[in-house]
Design goal:
mainly alpha; 40% helix; globular
Length: 321
């Protein structure tokens, strides 16, 4: 019996080694730092963290970045609502994406209209539905009027005159967000730890690769780097939001959205740009049909879901339901 167990374990380890090699063809472990962080200082990051939670950046002092992109108590950079309420209670039109690891995405927002974290940080503050501030000058004057920020900006942006500018507000928030790096057991697996994923999770990874989910969900974030039509093989039920077409007016962009990154996906329900898909199982099954024209079996859905849960930040895994 001992010999049989050892043999089975050896086979499992051999299979895992092959899977590690294959996984590294399509995915990669998270690096230690995000692009742009080489210019970040502890003072800039500390300021950015304070601004990230600063409700006085909104028109009525009720809304901060953290209101929709929560980080406390196991939240994964989202509020787990289909769409989020803004400073005046009006609902947004798209599901709030996670800020965790976001600096590695090709662009920001579902339609990619912001090229990086700095440009993204500028958007919600002036969005009339979200934080509702009327213009950049009003934001600058409001923050300049708060004594605690005056020295903090000078320390974070030495040599800038004035130090408190809308650009620097966004730069500081982005510096903080570049610290939100969440390695998972999948990173350990790709780095050679064959036991980091269970047999079920490895089976899910194999299925994820085999049925070609990795054609869109690949790279560091298992997504977040390309744009695809939602409903490539079969139409998505909700056609009210035409995606990138709203910006380009080019019919080729109808229902095209940025591919969502899948790291921490087990904690970011509900899913899709409209937040209408409630569970991870449902999202996996629906994506199989919409994008691949595959009627996934219950076993395939279960295995893939198990693998996706292994993409969760190791410090947040306890919060998976």
């Amino acid at each position: 019996m001992v010999l049989l167990l050892m043999t089975a374990g050896s086979v499992f380890a051999d299979d895992a080694g092959l899977l590690i090699s294959r996984a590294n063809r399509f995915f990669s472990p998270l690096p230690e730092a995000m692009p742009g962080s080489e210019n970040d200082t502890p003072e800039r990051v500390a300021l950015g963290k304070k601004l990230y939670f600063e409700k006085r950046l909104s028109i009525n002092d009720t809304q901060s970045c953290a209101s929709c992109h929560r980080l406390e108590d196991g939240f994964a950079g989202v509020d787990n609502l289909p769409v989020s309420p803004g400073a005046k209670g009006e609902l947004g039109t798209r599901n709030s994406p996670t800020v965790l690891n976001a600096g590695w995405q090709d662009s920001q927002f579902w339609d990619g209209r912001a090229e990086d974290l700095v440009e993204q940080a500028k958007g919600p503050i002036l969005n009339p539905i979200e934080m509702g501030m009327p213009d950049e000058k009003t934001v600058e004057e409001k923050i300049r009027g708060i004594v605690e920020y005056r020295d903090a900006f000078v320390l974070a942006f030495p040599g800038d005159e004035p130090a408190i500018t809308y650009q620097n507000i966004a730069e500081a928030i982005a510096a903080f967000e570049r610290t939100l790096i969440t390695p998972s057991r999948f990173d350990d697996f790709m780095n050679g730890d064959a036991g980091a994923l269970s047999e079920t999770e490895q089976r899910g990874l194999k299925t994820f690769i085999k049925i070609d989910c990795k054609s869109c969900h690949d790279g560091k974030l298992v997504g977040g780097e390309t744009y695809e039509p939602l409903g490539k093989e079969n139409p998505y039920e909700n056609q009210s939001d035409p995606g990138i077409y709203t910006l380009t007016k080019d019919e080729i962009d109808l229902m095209v959205f940025k591919v969502a990154p899948l790291r921490n996906v087990a904690l970011t329900a509900p899913y899709f740009h409209d937040g209408k898909i409630n569970t991870l199982d449902e999202a996996v099954r629906k994506m199989g049909k919409l994008q691949l024209d595959e009627e996934l079996t219950d076993q395939q859905v279960s295995d893939i879901t198990a693998f996706l849960k292994a993409l969760t930040d190791k410090n947040r895994e306890q919060y998976i339901k």
